[in-house]
Amino acid sequence: MTEITATMWKRFSRKQSLERFGIEFVLLMLFLWATRSIDIYWPFVADAPSQAADLLNRMTPPNFTFLKDIVPSMIETINIATLSTIFAVILSFPLAVLNARNTTPHYIVQMAARFIIVTSRSVNELVWGLIFVVFFGPGVVAGVAALTMRSLGFMAKLVSEAIEEIDHGQVEAIRATGANGAKVFTYGVLPQILPIIIGTSIFRWDINIRQSSVIGLVGAGGIGILLTSSMNLFRWQNVSMILISIFFVVLAGEYVSAIVRKKLI
Amino acid sequence: MLSVKNLDKTYPTGQHALKGCSLDIKKAQIVSIFGSSGAGKSTFIRCINRLVEPSGGEVYLDDMEITGLKGKDLHKARRQMGMIFQEYNLIERLTVMENVLSGRLGYVGFFKAMFRRFPQESVDEAFSLLERVGLEGYHNQRADALSGGQRQRVGIVRALIQHPKILLVDEPTSGLDPKTAMIIMQLIGDLAKEKGIPAIINIHDVKLGQEYADRIIGMTDGEIVFDGAPSEVTAETLTMIYGEEDWSKTIRKIEDEEE
Hints:
heterodimer; A: mainly alpha; MetI-like fold; 10 helices; B: Rossmann fold; 37% helix; globular
């Protein structure tokens, strides 16, 4: 029984190879089906480069005198972002506590909190904007409400995940001192999640600066309103100036949030 | 001082961690609990201050029955029992002073605690206890900036500032180097004697446990199998507690030290 046989080695067994081939085939079919179904009008695609060149031509040079209209609108945009972030941080906190497995008072409460969070996250800010423009009329209030609604679920989800991942030993130590539930929370839980709350808030503010420049498209205040009206009037040199301003404000927002994050955490 | 009667604990997983453990501590003594991992030592001391809910049995601190207390009464009972933990369990992001004063949480109101408005006498006591354990000047350091030995000293001070009637100590030296471990054990023993309170110490290290204890409890598989003076611990006792092994070396070293 000392017969020596060469041991064959293949990375995948025959069954695995067949499975992999099957998956590749399905992906190819999906791609072909998708491209056929969207009904591309090829002359438009062929025309795109010259159209782009034409637009670029009409956009240059940017209208720098338009800045005097842009600046107030931009300040409004930043304020919408800041206000909605503050509201979202405040409102998301109880939601996060109710949603976290280890701090929720009851399973049913947790489900309710989760429902709010999922609703908030699954609706795009432009859609929230459309809804709140109906409620509050066009303007800043609708914008703040829209971004608050959208940020709420984002904040609550990340903070409640942080609560679920805390070191339980620290909580146990505070319980052992005879502290009641509220004190256990402020000493045992809060210090552990505070860096996450601060970090997430800054990150969300950063996102909200970007989003608040868009929600004006549906009339919810900020620079977006100026952008749509300029586009409707074919004032392309104004449009390019607005786009440049948005770029620099977003850049500044990222810079500021990076500094704040470094300072606070 | 402390009386534990037929303490029983079955976890929801079905694990029978404590099987009718009884223990009486009638004077201020250092009690070391020996036992291998999973013998039920941690569960035992956590059932005393009810961080773990016992399934059966009674615990009395002086004349107060701890088992059966609810809400406020339980919080009041817990503040009379200081606890020191295996991994220190300090609030990492808070300062040494905040960690120490958290030992007074059972005594101050919520808003005072939240805004760190602790009574001056607590602050005074915190400073003098920190000095006593060799941490003067560290009060504004963050806990996560300290070494293991320093953290455990803060843990000790946090337990003592509760003005406890008993210390419950869970593996205070695991994760510390041998010298620091000795210093910490010495400190816990000395301070317990100074305050005139008993201490129950779960400990892996047989030598350390024997050296600083007045009384040894042995636990195996959720039962107390030995209760006696450190000098009564023999190779047979250790075999009974930990299982078959050559204990002669561990024992001889202890005898050497006694000479």
